[in-house]
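quick one, 50 residues, struct below
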Amino acid sequence: MKGLNVAWLHNEFRTKGEPDGISRFNTSFGPAGIITHNGNRIYLNYVYQF
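---
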């Protein structure tokens, strides 16, 4: 299809370390947080000239 663009973004984010066992209500970001995150996004763009 003329004018259709597709982009796929895949992200894998892993931190090193061990959880300290303390129960927290919020997710800690940055160097103090132990976070594992996988993300997949698909972007569709369609251009139609008239």
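The mean pLDDT is 79.
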